[in-house]
Amino acid sequence: HALQVLLIFAKEDSQSDGFWWACDRAGYRCNIARTPESALECFLDKHQEIIVIDHRNSRYFYAEDICRSIRATKPSEHTVILAVVPRTSADEEETSVLPLLNAGFDRQFKENSSITACYNELVQIEHGEVRSQFKLRACNAVFTALDHCQEAIEITSEDHVIQYVNPAFEQMMGYHKGELIGKELTELPKSDKNCADLLDNINTFIKKGKEWQGVYYARRKTGDSIQQHVKITPVIGQGGKIRHFVSLKRLHCTNENNKQVLYVFHVVIFTALSKLIFFESHSFKCKNRRKDSIDVKSITSQSSDAPSLPTRRYSSMARIHSMTIEAPITKVINIINAAQENSPITVAEALDRVLEILRTTELYSPQLGTKDEDPHTSDLVGGLMTDGLRRLSGNEYVFSKNVNLSHSHLSVPNTINDVPPCIAQLLDNEESWDFNIFELEAVTNKRPLVYLGLKIFARFGVSEFLNCSEATLRAWLQMIEANYHSSNSYHNSTHAADVLHATAFFLRKERVKGSLDHLDEVAALIAATIHDVDHPGRTNSFLCNAGSELAVLYNDTAVLESHHTALAFQLTIKDSKCNIFKNIDRNRYRTLRQAIIDMVLATEMTKHFEHVNKFVNSINKPMASEEISSHSEGSDCECTANIKNFPDNQTLIKRMMIKCADVANPCRPLELCIEWAGRISEEYFAQTDEEKRQGLPVVMPVFDRNTCSIPKSQISFIDYFITDMFDAWDAFAHLPVLMQHLANNYKHWKTLDELKCKSVRLPSEN
Questions:
Q1: Under 8 Å between Cβ of 702 and 717
Q2: Which residues bind Zn(2+) 2 per the record (predicted)?
Q3: Residues 379, 457: contact at Cβ < 8 Å?
Q4: Cys-Cys link to 164, which of 14, 155, 196, 424 (CB 3.0-4.6 A)?
């Protein structure tokens, strides 16, 4: 959640306005209260992290009384309260802050209505006191978790004074924590079963900052010795010095038949704490720029009948613990946790590392190693796989949102048979992978999508499936093509036609055809047609950085892809003449619509590796295993039949298909590949130019038209995004022609790069 601020000002003036707009600039959520009663009510409802109270005069309320009433509540423990005090003149003596501190204020702010001054004050509080409060809150959460868990932990200071033991430790050793806290380890009885120099060896290790683990005898309070497997980790703190030692102890069981072992997990307190702090502080980076209502009374009165926040929280937690539905990843983690119980320490530790990896949200995104750290790769990854950085400048990037229903002067055929001969002749070859889309672009006056769409949709029986006339389909294609920007060098209707062509080509491959239903085919062709409609020729990162209307509308998430699908459906259903869905029943429409949306969203690059890896793990690997074990000629039919039985697998295939169709340029014949490379580079150059003009962050600095090496950018794109994906798709769909083109094109770019040529061709070829 965004940081929340409560302003308590009896009257609106330049000072309250200054703080209001400072909150807006910082991306904080802000409430204003006018009376002590509404202020307390709002705070108990919202639990704001910062409160600003007007302390300049006592005509309307006493600021110190309000502060005390808020401090008397439990939630205020982690709140920073700021007093706005009058400015003092040069000859006036500075007043003491002690009365303010005694009343519960944390800071004072000398009256200054400058938005920048207010902004600076709030940001300093966020980065100072507020973050410290979050650390304390996280610390409490960690210790609460340790107190209630079954694992035993002992934490000591650098001088080996015991600072914390949890109940599991008390149970193991027979002591109450009150008997241990504050004592030095040397004060506790030692077992005489240890080697004479064992303690010296342990101290030597841990004082050097090294972790020690081994077998150690400890004496319980009852006097009996128990053998433990001990692991002690030094915790480095301020100044790089050792500040704590955290110990893990589990009973060392030599009897193989005795599997009832009490495991005591080693928890490095500051590691856990840092993770919690990261999640807390990370939320500040995702700023919510929405303003809350100023009318605090109306906010609180609406929820007066609802259960209190703590009550809701506890009932929710109870429901979570009683849930019978488990996500697959939860089941996996539970299985691993159970396996740890009876595993040797080395296996248990390895499984801990596995669990750490599984709990990350970025399971499918590879981390760039040193071999990949070239600027072209990192810029492509940054530009295509992130949503950009939020700016506070207020820069807006707005592109044309006019619904373009006008048509150019080129006549559109009444039927598929009524096509000019020059176009019809070109379309005779549209089933070939080597079909030249740029020739069709030229003869159709940059309107290839209508003509190619009519031909492909007729071949796949789209009109019959949708129960719509050819005239409706033609009007729909015209309307969609009219809403592509012909001014874009790359993301125009020619690119849409190219992706439609690739999708149709893939749908004819035997294994793809056998895995999908007719509805899937129709959804794929429609998705390919609309997948970039109204594209502004700028990346998602650019739109987010510029604070565009679309980025705000879609919360900086899959901005363009969400817009393409939403606009396409809006345009389609608002005009009966081009509504291709008007004659299909509701259920079929819902299924078709969801499939189309899912495929278009799959073209967004932030989840590229997730889609590819899921396809490999769920389609490629099981299919390879089946083929090896089957050894029968009918195995391929059996594999595709199995896929049809699992809708999730069909979804993975459709996603992979449109992803490959969308970026198939490097797999086209060399001349087409070169043309596409030039076009996408020009679009990125134009974006970099505009970013510099507007003072926005430059998302892909290598795409500077004065310095960029197009061959290097193509090599990086193929290495990082294309090769693995098309290897996986080829293994499923069998695409030898594409893979040969990819190898040839890669060789072309490598040759240009070795010759230090930055353009798409050798100078002699231009």
A1: no
A2: 532
A3: no
A4: 155
What is the C-alpha to C-alpha distance for residues 286 and 265, in angstroms, rounded to an integer? 34
Q: CA-to-CA distance for 631 and 521, rounded, in angstroms? A: 30
**Cα separation of 685 and 713, whole Å?**
12
User: How many Cβ atoms from other residues are within 10 Å of residue 680's Cβ?
Assistant: 20
Q: Are 657 and 506 in contact (CB under 8 A)?
A: yes
Query: Which amino acid appears at position 551 of this protein?
Result: A
Is-contact 25 392, C-beta < 8 A? yes
Beta-bridge mates of residue 339: none
Q: How far apart are CA 383 and CA 684, in angstroms?
A: 10
Choosing from 485, 491, 535, 564, the catalytic residue is 491
- Look at residue 262 in the predicted model and tell me its pLDDT: 35
Distance between CA atoms of residues 2 and 283, nearest Å: 6
Round to whole Å and give the CA distance between 586 and 593.
10
Phi, psi of 4 (to 5 degrees): -110, 140
Alpha-carbon gap, residue 348 to 195, rounded angstroms = 27
Cα 479 to Cα 458: distance, rounded to the nearest angstrom: 18
* Cα radius of gyration rounded to whole Å, the chain: 33
Q: Which two tokens stand for residue 353?
A: 């590392």
Residue corresponding to tokens 């893939």: 506
Tokens of 567: 């606009």
CB atoms within 10 A of CB 118: 25
From 620, 612, 611, 618, select the one nearest 731 (Cα to Cα): 620
213: three-class secondary structure by DSSP:
strand
Average pLDDT score over residue span 41-62? 90
Supply the pTM of this predicted model: 0.56
Placement of tokens 């308590």 in the chain: 8
Terminal Cα-to-Cα distance of the chain (whole angstroms):
55
Domain annotation for the chain: domains and CATH numbers: 4-145 (3.40.50.2300), 150-252 (3.30.450.20), 330-359 (no CATH), 384-389+412-627+635-755 (1.10.1300.10)
Which of helix, strand or coil describes residue 489?
coil
Phi, psi of 698 (to 5 degrees): -85, 110
Alpha carbon of 151 to those of 214, 224, 681: distances in Å? 18, 22, 57
What is the rounded distance in angstroms from the CA atom of residue 761 to the CA atom of residue 742?
17
Task: Kindly give, in sequence order, each residue whose CB lies less than 8 Å from that of residue 670, ignoring residues fewer than 6 positions away.
Answer: 741, 744, 745, 748
DSSP lists the bridge partners of residue 5 as 30, 50
Convert the pLDDT of each residue in 580-613 to its tens digit: 999 999 999 999 999 999 999 999 998 899 999 9
- Dihedral over alpha carbons 564, 399, 380, 286 (to 10 degrees): -80
**What DSSP line would sit under 53-65, residue for residue?**
EE-S-SSS--HHH
Q: Say if CB 299 and CB 292 are below 8 A apart.
A: yes
**229 in catalytic set:** no
Closest CA to 656 of 645, 668, 643: 643
**Binding residue positions:** 491-495, 531-532, 662, 714
Residue 192 phi, psi dihedral angles, 5° rounding: -90, 10
Rounded Cα gap, residues 98 and 616, in angstroms: 66
Q: How far is CA 732 from CA 184, 637, 640, 652, 736, in A?
A: 66, 13, 10, 12, 12
Q: What residue type is 326 in one-letter code?
A: E
Residue 727: φ, ψ to 5°:
-60, -45
Element (H, E) at 433: none
Where do the DSSP E strands lie in 571-673? none
